[in-house]
Amino acid sequence: MNNFQEALASPITESLDIVKKMDLPNGKQTQTIGFPVKMTGYEFEIYRNPPIIGEHNEEVIEEWLHSTAIRN
């Protein structure tokens, strides 16, 4: 069994062209898995980066708790 780094570097994974570069909020770059399904004539893209920790707290609290106050 491969670990994550070995799986990313695998010739099979490379041939599928699903490993994509992604910019992180801290300015660093990492590799991630793109959409693993291939469709003729369509290219999937990673169109957004992961959020910064806490970036969506208020939105989630409002949606889940129906409140605008942050609860600890």
Structure description:
29% of the residues lie in helices and 14% in strands. It is built from 3 helices and 2 strands; from the N terminus they run H-H-E-E-H. The chain has helices at residues 4-9, 11-16, 57-65; strands at 19-23, 29-33. A hairpin with a 5-residue loop joins strand 1 (19-23) and strand 2. The chain is elongated and about 50 Å long.
Give the key terms.
alpha+beta; elongated; 14% strand; 3 helices
Q: Give the overall pLDDT as a whole number.
A: 80
Number of helices: 3
Please report the total strand number as a whole number.
2
The gyration radius over C-alpha positions equals: 17 Å
Helix content: 25-40%
End-to-end Cα distance, whole Å, is 41 Å
Uncertain segments = none
3D shape: elongated
Q: What's the order of the H and E elements?
A: HHEEH
How does the major sheet shape up?
A: 2 strands, antiparallel
Strand order of the largest sheet: 1-2
Strand portion, in percent?
5-15%
Overall SS class: alpha+beta
Secondary structure layout:
Elements: H1 4-9, H2 11-16, E1 19-23, E2 29-33, H3 57-65
Antiparallel strand pairs: 1-2
In short:
The chain is α+β, with helices and mostly antiparallel strands and 72 residues long. The chain contains three helices and two strands; from the N terminus they run ααββα. The chain starts with a helix and ends in a 7-residue tail after the last helix.
